[in-house]
Amino acid sequence: MSRVLPVFAIVFAAVYALIYTLAVWKNYALFTYHPALNEFGIGVQKPKDGPAMYWYGWMATAGISAAVAGFIACLIPASASRRLWPGLAWLVPLCAMVFFAWMLRGYFMR
Amino acid sequence: MTTALLIVHGLLAVALLGAITHQAAALLLPTTRPAGSFTGRFRAVAAPGYANAIVFLYVFTAVLGGVIYAEYRISIRIVLEELQLRVANGSFELKEHLAAVGLGMLPAYWWYWRQPATEPGAALTRTMLTAMLAFVVWWNFLVGHIVNNIRGFGS
C-alpha cells in the first residue's frame, strides 16, 4: 500500500491537471449543465434557455481520466514506479495554472 | 437558500484560509519553539496536523462553491458583463480553474503530509504542493469576496 499510494497520487495530480487543461482548451466536457433549466446533457451541448455550464463536465473528464491513469500506474512493477519523479505532482499543475492565466489574459489586458 | 449556502461556503473558506496559512507559514518560515511573538507563535504550529482538515475543508468548500456556481452564472456573471467589469469577471474565471486544479492536487498533498519527507524530492514536493494550494485558497477567497461585494448582498 505504501508503494501504490504515492504512485497513484503523483499520476493522478499530473494527469488530472493535464486532462483538465486539455478539456477546457478543446472543450471536452463529459456533460453539460443548463442552470436555467436545471438540466444535464451528455457531452458538449449548445446553450438552450440561458447559459450552458461545462465546468462540471471538464472536472468529470479530468477526474475519471486521472483515476484510470492512476490505477494503471499502480500496476507498473515497483522497479519502474520508483523512477517516477514526485515533482510531476506539482510541476504539471503549476504549468496548468500558468496556462490558465495566459488563456484568460484578455480579461486583464486591453 | 443560495444566500445560506454562500454564507456557509464563506465560513468554510475562512477556516480553510486560516488552516492553510498556518501550515504554509510553519513550512516556509519555520521558527524555534516556544516562540515569543505573535507571528512566531503563528508559525510555530505543528504543520502536519493540519493536512486532514485542509483536505476536508477544501473539498467541502469546493463542493458548496460548485452548488452555488450555477446561480452565479445565471444572476451575477451577466451583471459583471453588463457593467464591463472585465477584471472581476476574468478573476472569477481563473478562480474556477484554480479551484479545479487544486482538487486534483489533494491526493498528492495528503500523501506527502502523511509521512516524513525522507525520500528524494519528497520535501520539495510537499513544499510546492502546500505553497500552491495556499496561493489557490488565497486567490479564490479574495476574488470570491470581491465579486460578492460588487454584486451586493441580497440584491
- How large is the count of helical segments of chain A? 5
As a percent range, the share of strand residues of chain B is under 5%
- Termini distance of chain A? 52 Å
Rg measurement of chain B, Å: 17 Å
Task: Give a verbal description of the structure.
The N and C termini of chain A lie far apart (52 Å). Chain A has helices at residues 4-26, 55-74, 78-81, 88-103, 105-108, and strands at 31-34, 39-42. The mean pLDDT of chain A is 93. Chain A is built from 5 helices and 2 strands. Chain A has a two-stranded antiparallel sheet with strand order 1-2. Chain A is mostly helical. The radius of gyration of chain A is 17 Å and the shape is flat. Chain B is mainly α. The mean pLDDT of chain B is 90. Chain B is elongated, with a radius of gyration of 17 Å. Classes of the chains: A mainly alpha (110), B mainly alpha (155). The A-B interface holds A 2, 5-6, 8-10, 12-13, 16-17, 20, 24, 33, 35-36, 50-51, 53, 55-56, 58-59, 62-63, 66, 85-87, 89-91, 93-94, 96-97, 100-101, 104, 106-108 and B 66, 69-71, 73-74, 77, 86-87, 89-91, 93-94, 96-98, 100-105, 107-108, 110-112, 115, 119, 121-122, 124-125, 128-129, 132, 136.
